[in-house]
Amino acid sequence: VPFSAAPALMQLDEPEAELQSYALRALDAVADLHWAEMAQHLPKLQALGENTSFVDFKLAALVSAKVLFHLGDLDQALEYALIADDLFSIGEQSEFSRTLRAKCIDEYIAFKNPAYRSSAPAASAMDTDARVLPPALETTVERILADCIARGEVEEAIGVGIEARRLDQIEHAISKGCTSPQHRAASLAYCVSCTKNLDVSKVFRNEILAMVAKLHAADESPDHLAIASCMCHIGDAKGVASLLYSLVTSKSEEQHLVALQIALDVVENDDPRFRLALIKEIPAAADAEETVRPTLEKVHLVLSGSPSAMLKLDFLCSKNNFDMYTLKKTRSSIDQRSSVCHAALVFANAIGHSGTAIDSFLRENLDWLARATSWNKFSATACLGVIHARRTSNALNLLSPYLSSQGTSSSAYSEGGGLYALGIISATGGTSLKPASSASTDVIDSRKYLLDALRSAGTNEIVQHGACLGLGLAAMANWDGESEENEIYDELKNVLFSDSAVAGEAAGLAMGLLALGSGSTKIHDEMLAYARETEHEKISRGLAMGIAMIFFGLEDAAADALKELAEDKLHILRYGAMYGYGLAYCGTANNDAISVLLRVAVSDVNDDVRRAAVTNIGFVLFRHPQQVPKVVKLLSDSCHAHVRYGSALALAVACAGTAQSSAVQILEKLSTDTSDFVRQGALIGLAMVYMQESPEADPKVAEIRKTLEHTVGDKHEEVMTKFGAILSLGLIDAGGRNCLISLSSRSGVTQVSSVIGLAMFTQFWYWFPFTHFIALALKPKALIAVNKDLQMPVIEIKNTSRSNLFSYPPLGPQE
C-alpha cells in the first residue's frame, strides 16, 4: 500500500489522458486511506468527473464521491456516485457503498413519496422546486433492487417499494425473488405486516393488500384465509362473499371448514359495518341448492355472531376466577356516605365480572345497593349489561323487572339503565333476543325494541337517555348516512331537537354510533350546525363525540373536516376534533395526526382539549406500544395537570396488557402526583397495563395490587383518586381475570367496537355511566376450537413453559 497519494495526484496535472486515467485508478485504490491528502485536489477531481469528453470521467466521479463521503458531504458524494454509474458498486460491502446505497434509496423515496421528505431530518441537495427525478438515480435504485432480488433479499426490495409507493416493484420483487412457496408466503406476510406497521396512506395500503390477495390467488394452492384477511382489511365485502360462496359450493369438506373459519375471523374482526354488508352479499340458504344449503346455513349462523358469543360466554362463566374478597374488603373500607365510592365499587364489580353472567355480589348486597339513588341507580342497573354481556338468550327475562314494556318498572332511572344494559348486551352478543315469556318462540330484534321504547318514553329525559345509548349501541354502524332515510336516525334527531340536555347528549352520541365510520357529509353538517346552535354544553359534547365517530377509520379522507373542527372557536368542538384524529387515524401511527395532537397538547388554551389531544396519541399509536412512552415522556413531566393526566390515559390505551416497564415507570411516577385526578389516571393506567399479567411473570404486579388496596383504604386520600383505585381493582381482574383490552384482531384488523368502547370509557370524566362502554373493549383471552358442527372437541394443548407464568393470582381468604 503506498504511503502517500502524492505521486498519483501529481500525474493528474499531466496533459495526457492516459496518465490521468492511470492516476485515477491508483487514487481509487487508496481513497479510503489517503482521502485527506486527496481532498486538497478535490476541485481537479470534480472537474474531470464532470467532463464527459474525458474517457474515464466516471472513474474521476467515483474518486470524487469517495473523498466527499469521507469529508461528510453525503449529498454531493451521492451526486458524483450517480455520475460514476456502473462503476459505483452497489453490491460492495464497504462503508462507502452501504452508506451511499442507503442515501440513494432515501433520495429516491423522497422523490416518489413527498410525505417521506416532510418527515426527514434535513432537506437534500437534490431537493428542487421542479422535483424532477434524475434518471441516474432511478437507474441506480433499479440496480440496487435487482441486486436485492438476485441475492434473495426480497424483504428489502418490498420495503423500498412500499416507501416509494412503487406497487409494480413490490409485485416484481415477490414474483421474481422468491425461491420457494414458503419464501413466497413469508414475503407476502411481510408485505401485509408492513402495511400495518408503516405510515402508509389508506389508498395505497388497500392497493398493496389487493395485490397480495391477487398473488395468493395465483398460487397452486391458494391460502384462502390470507386472501380473505386482505379483503377484510380493504373492506371488500363482495370479494369475501364471492370467496365464501366458492368454498361452500366446493365438494371438498376441507374447503367448507375454511369457509367457516373465514366467517369466524370476520366475527372476531369486530367490524359491524363490514359484517352486515357481508351478510347481505351472501345468498340466503333457502335460495341455494340442496347440497350447499347446510354449510351455507352454518356460515350465516356464524356471521350472526351467536356461536362465538355463546362460546365466549361459556368460557368466561365456567372459568371465572374473580376474587370476591377484594370487593368485600373494598366495600368495608370505603366511606359509606360517599356516592362516588359507591358508584366506583358497582363499576368495579361489573368490570370484574364482565361477560361472566355472575351477579352474586349484587344479589348478596341488595340493602347496600339500594342506597343508590338517581343516576347511581341508573348506573347500577346498567351494570347488568356489562356483567351479562353477550347473553342475548336471557337478556329480556333478566331485565324485565326494570323495563316498563314488561309492566314492572317503577323508576325512570331503573328503566333508563335497563335499556342501556340491553344495548350493551346487543352490541356484544347480537341483536336477536328471545322474549321474556318462555311460551313465545319469536325472535325480537333489540333495535326495534329499543326504538319502540324510545318512542314511548314521551318527554322523560332519563328514559330517553338510556334508550338513546342502548339504541346507538345496538345499531352501531348500521347506516351509511347517505342511502334511504333511516327511522332510527329520524327518531334520535327528534330527541336531539327537543333540546333536553340529558337526552340530547345521548342522542348526539347515538347518531354518531349509528353512522360510525360512514364519513357522511349530511350527518356531519346537521350535527355540527346544532352543536354550534345549542346552549347546552352536554348536547354539544355528545355531538362532538358523535362527529368524531363518523370519521372512524377514514384517515386522510377526514383531514379537511378535522382541520376545520380543530380550529373552531368552540372548545368542545376542538375537543371532539382531537378524538376525531384519534379515531380516524386509529392504529396508523400517522405522522401528521401525531404532529397535530402534540401541537394542540402544548398550545390550546382549554384544559379539556389539551387532555384529549394527549390521550388520543395512545389511539393513533396503539400498534406501537413501545413508542408511546417515548412520545409522552416529556408530556408526563408537564407543569399542566391535564396534560399529565392525558399522558397516563395514552399509556393505558396503547400499552394495555403489555406490562411494559417503560410505561410502568412513567405511571408509577404519576401515581404520586400532587393532583388527585392525575393520580386517578395513573392508577387506571397501571391496572390496564398489568391486565392478564401474573406475579410469576412480573413480581411488580403484586406491588401494584397492594398500592391499589392501600389507596382505597387510606382515609386521607382524595375521593377522585379513590374512585380511580376502586375502578382499577375491577380493571386489573376484568372478566373474572380472563379478559384483556384488545384493539385489534389476530389478523391485525382494528376492532371497531373495542376502540369505540375504550374511547367512550375515557368520557367518564364528565359522566360516570359512560364507564360501562369498557365492556365493548374487553375480549376473552382463550384458545377456543370448534369442529364442523360448531361444537367444541376434546383436545389437548401442549405447553412447554412453566404453568405458573400463566396461573391466576392467589385468591383472598375465604369466609
Describe it for me?
The structure is a single chain. By secondary structure, the chain is an all-alpha fold. The protein contains 43 helices and four strands. Helix 20 runs parallel beside helix 41 (719-731) and helix 37 (641-654) packs parallel to helix 39. The longest helix has 22 residues, at 17-38. The protein is globular and about 110 Å long. The N and C termini lie far apart (87 Å).
Helix coverage percent of residues? 55-70%
β-strand percent reads: under 5%
Strand order of the largest sheet: 1-2
Count of helical stretches: 43
Q: Give unreliable regions as ranges.
A: 116-130
The SS-based structural class is mainly alpha
Rg from Cα = 31 Å
Q: Indicate the mean pLDDT.
A: 90
Give the number of DSSP strands.
Answer: 4
Distance between the termini: 87 Å
Shape: globular
Report the sheet with the most strands, covering strand number, pairing sense and barrel closure. Answer: 2 strands, antiparallel
Give a brief outline of the structure.
This protein is an all-alpha fold and 815 residues long. The protein has 43 helices and four strands.
Write the layout of secondary structure elements.
Layout: H1 6-11, H2 17-38, H3 42-50, H4 57-71, H5 74-84, H6 95-112, H7 114-118, H8 135-150, H9 154-163, H10 167-177, H11 181-197, H12 202-217, H13 224-234, H14 237-248, H15 253-269, H16 272-281, H17 293-303, H18 306-318, H19 324-333, H20 339-352, H21 360-364, H22 366-369, H23 374-387, H24 395-399, H25 412-429, E1 432-433, E2 444-445, H26 446-455, H27 461-474, H28 487-497, H29 501-514, H30 521-533, H31 537-550, H32 559-566, H33 571-584, H34 591-603, H35 607-620, H36 628-636, H37 641-654, H38 661-670, H39 676-689, H40 700-713, H41 719-731, H42 734-737, E3 739-741, H43 752-761, E4 778-780
Antiparallel strand pairs: 1-2, 3-4
